[in-house]
Every structure is written in C-alpha cells, then in structure tokens.
Structure prediction request, 333 residues.
Amino acid sequence: MTAFPARAAAAPLRTFSGIQPSGAPHIGNDLGAIRNYVRLQDEYEAIYCIVDYHALTTVHEGEVLRQRTFEMAASLLALGLDPDRCTLFVQSHRPEHTELAWLLATVTPVSWVERTPSFKEKREARPDDINHALLTYPVLQAADIAMYKASIVPVGGDQSAHLELSREIVRAFNRRYGETFPEPREVHTETPVVMGTDGLRRMSKSIGNTIDILAAPDVIRQQVMSMVTDTQRIKRTDPGRPEVCNVCQLHRFFGEDYLEIQDGERTARTGCVDTKRLLADRIIRHYAPARERYAELTGHPDRVEGILEAGADRLRPIAAATMAEVREKMGLR
Ligand code: TRP
Prediction:
C-alpha cells in the first residue's frame, strides 16, 4: 500500500474521490480504488462522490443514468462505506461543482485539455459523440477536488493524467488569484490496474471483461471460468507462468496461500481450471456479506436516497464557503 502522510493533530486532512456511476462495481473497481475508500474513512475526513455530471458525457438516457447512480451508491455502502464515517453524495446534488468548473476553466489553457489521454481515446473510440463536455471533463474533476480543498485522492491507476491536470489547474488558479487550493495527491492501492478477464486490457464495463463482485454466484463463476490464463500453457502438463497469469495474480487478494497456488501452477501440479474454480469460490465467499447488504439496500431504495441526500446537505456549508472565497477573489460580486 502507498504510505500516507501522518494526519495532522489539528486539522484532519481531507480525502476526496469521485467514481463513475457505472452500476454495480467489478473487481477492478474494488481492488483498484474502493478498498482504499473504505480504509481511508478512518484516517481522514473522507468525501466520496458519484459523478453523474461526468457520466453525462457518455450516458445519454436519463433512466439508465439514474439506475446506475443508485446501484453504485448501494454498492459502495454494501462494500463498506459508512455514512457515519464518510460523506457519500451524488455530484449533481451539489450543483456548485458546475459553477466551480466554469471558473476553473478560465485558468485552463485549451492545449491542456486537448492533450488529455482520455479525451484522445474517446475521440478515437466514439467519433460520432465528441461533445464539448468531454473536453472539459478534467476541469470538472479538478473542481470536484478543489471544492472541498482535498489533498488526498484515492483513485485507480488510469486516473494519473487527470490528477496531474487537477494539480496544474489548481496551481494556475493559485498563481493568478493567490493561494487558495492545496495540490491534490493521488494514492493507489497495491493493484491500481486490474486486468480484465480477456487478460489483455484493463478491466472495464465498456469492454465487457469484468468480474461483477455483487452479481449472483453463477454469474461470477462463469466470468471467472472464462478468464484467459497463461496463453503459452497449452497442455495440462505444461508448466504455468503465474507471473503472467491473471488468475494467479488475483489469488493474491483472496487467500494467504497464494504462493502455494502459484507454485502449483508453475510445477503443473494443478491445472488452470482447478485454479479458476478455487478463485471463483473464494471471490463468491469473500463478497457474500456485501452481496447480502446490497440486496438489502436495493430492497430499501429510500434508505440509500436518504444517505445521499444527507451527504449532499452536509457538504453545503463547505461548498458555500469555497464558492464565496473564489467568487470574491475573482471579482464576482
Ligand atoms: N474521472 C474519474 C474516473 O473516471 C472520476 C472522477 C470524477 C474523480 N471526479 C473525480 C476521481 C475527482 C477522483 C477525484 O474514475
């Protein structure tokens, strides 16, 4: 795990992260970021945001967005976010985020956003839907963090370019208007990037190579059994290479005996199918309590909604204070 700076005695450091409302999360979301969210609740003043404004850059059906936002909220609660120890809210419930994004856009050169890797990727992948908000996406992300003057940002490994840009944007603001925002530092888990079941690309819902941790056990089993392992291991008797086998790598997080499991593969004592079966069993068992809580929460949507509303309400004074300070410095009112 990444080392964190000691918490100052007086002012607790604030941690903030945003997560896409992609529906119920996959194992990459959990190992890459959500585990850190849960852990950091006890070390810092923690604020977590489901970024529905960001999602609008690619999700264009209202009902789908609403449903996925709800599912992500219920999932985060099921996986261990505790409304008594952190603040969980939906981005659009604090519309100040869009105002701050506009203000930060005025200190952001176009060239910075044009060279953002995620923008270039989307321009390639979906040439028929390059809306302007896609370009502004990282400015809104900087605003999310700056709104709460957060200095620690737990994210997956794919967010480094965005975080670099967030730092550049707050630096540009501080240069022009005086010291206002801390520079946010990203923190990672020990697996910032989790490979998908195809063994080729980062696990991602849009690619469809996920292991859906809160899905029914049958679904998880089928997803794990479909995983691509060491492609050079053809026959059952061939020795395996656990270093390149995604299944072996995932075992690290679901049992103390993972070195033994890797050894079994290396010496061909075990076969890929055995190792996958074991992994599926362990993932299903590990997430069983969360799956139960998830079912419970989705059965009581009003509880989830109440937590989200309370979260946004709790943040109102912080957002108001930041906006007042920024408007004042920029010459508005
Ligand atoms: N771009 C992030 C992602 O896709 C989500 C995000 C939005 C975020 N605002 C943020 C992450 C602020 C960290 C901090 O995962």
